[in-house]
Amino acid sequence: MKKYGHVITSISYPDHHDYTSKDIEKLWNILNESTPETIILTTEKDAVRLKQKVAIQGLKVKIWYIPIELKILFNKKNTFFKTVNNYVRTN
Questions:
Q1: What proportions of the chain, in percent to the nearest 5, are helix, strand and coil?
Q2: What contacts 24+ positions apart, CB below 8 Å, involve 32-40?
Q3: Could you report the per-residue pLDDT of 1-57, keeping only the tens digit for each?
Q4: CA 49-55-56 angle, 5° bins
Q5: pLDDT grade, residue 81 (50/70/90)?
Q6: For a tag site, which of 17, 29, 35, 85 has the least CB within 10 Å?
Q7: What pTM was estimated for this model as a whole?
Q8: How far apart are CA 24 and CA 77, in angstroms?
Q9: What's the number of domains the chain is made of?
């Protein structure tokens, strides 16, 4: 997104961050100071977490994510799942 000049503010949180009301307020303030087209683009996992914490409907609709899919290449899907299943069984 930065490449196309569309990032206004980049905010980083640690993995598994438990969003606080202060975090939500910060996001809301940034959106209020931005154009109506402004969105929050985040990971799918964080979008779910944020939407659970946000009480402001106007903020909820601004939380967007790009879904991530796993694709196993080179016809190795069965090998991948066998490897994972073997690991889970032994650990």
A1: 45, 5, 45
A2: 34/8, 38/8, 38/62, 39/63, 39/64, 40/64
A3: 666 666 667 888 998 899 999 999 999 998 888 888 888 889 999 999 999 988 888
A4: 110
A5: very high
A6: 35
A7: 0.65
A8: 40
A9: 1
